[in-house]
Specification:
Length: 135
């Protein structure tokens, strides 16, 4: 489901993909607070695009790409309609010919996503569990 990660992870999130290839769906927000795509009937009218994440790829999200968009991975077994005109990073893909030869389809296999982010301190629970850090 399309979502945003929120202010706690801002200003940068880096995601390394391992295993299978997927298409990440990205949609512009309308500017309404606590928005998700399912809350709006006219979300089809908003600008959207896809980013294909191949194995061993790195996606860095920052700036307006982080603050002004929603992102999500569809719950499907196969990504379809994966073409040059629908994928923002098409020219950066290592295996475009395989996607094209497969009719613009990517069969989903197991993917591991490692996400790196600088999270603001939001709780003191960690200090209670792991002990206070000595300075």
């Amino acid at each position: 489901m399309p979502h945003e990660d929120g202010a706690a992870y801002h200003p940068v999130v880096a995601t390394v993909s391992l295993g299978g290839t997927i298409a990440l769906d990205v949609t512009m927000k309308t500017g309404e607070a606590n928005e998700t795509v399912d809350q709006h009937e006219n979300h089809e009218d908003r600008k959207s695009w896809r980013i294909v994440q191949e194995p061993r790829s790195l996606l860095v999200t920052t700036g307006t790409a982080y603050t002004d968009t929603l992102h999500g991975i569809a719950d499907v077994t196969e990504d379809t309609e994966v073409y040059e005109h629908s994928v923002a990073n098409w020219d950066l893909l290592g295996d475009r010919s395989a996607i094209t030869a497969n009719g613009g389809r990517i069969e989903r296999t197991t993917r591991v996503s490692l996400t790196y982010r600088d999270v603001k301190k939001v709780s003191s629970v960690g200090a209670k569990i792991f002990g206070k850090r000595k300075t």
